[in-house]
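S1.2 Input.
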Amino acid sequence: MIRILGKSSSINVRKVLWLCVELGVSFEQEEWGSGHRSTQEPGFLALNPNAMVPVLLDGALVLWESNTICRYLAARQARHDLLPAAPAERARVEQWMDWQATELNNSWRYAFMGLVRNSPEHQDPALLASSMANWHRHMRMLEEQLSRTGAFAAGAQLTLADIVLGLSAHRWLSAPMERPDLPAVRAYYERLCERPGFRTHGANGMP
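S1.3 Output.
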């Protein structure tokens, strides 16, 4: 049985937990991170020198970086519907995964820390406004893509791109801020909410 080290409130841990439900993979979860066991403990740092969650343990294999873990799990279970084997189809999925991890996530960091985490260091009005505007701009990119596919990020069926983007869509929709009306994103979110794993680990009341 695989072990997942990371707190249940972490957006990156939750995407891995949701994927495990989609895959039907049994796992044990250990709560690590703020409010739980410290990721600064030497034992954890030996697994991930970044001191971040999640960490996946599968026998002797140790993996960190949530999107890499998702790729590994899908390949481990030979789920080519989620991560295609054909190079072009796989690249279309992975480009949206990489966009989520680099561009989209970076757009909301300041706003999320200020609005949701209420961090005193993230309360500058101009920086909050700039971060929210950038967040909305990136979500409009997702809106355009979903309008083209009419269903999911990489096409007509759910893929790993949606596992990672679904948590991001939930965060955007749940943040206490005004947001533009993006009907394709809203419909996408409603489709994801039909999936038990997303309801348990995505749309579960946590931002």
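S1.4 Remarks. The mean pLDDT is 97.
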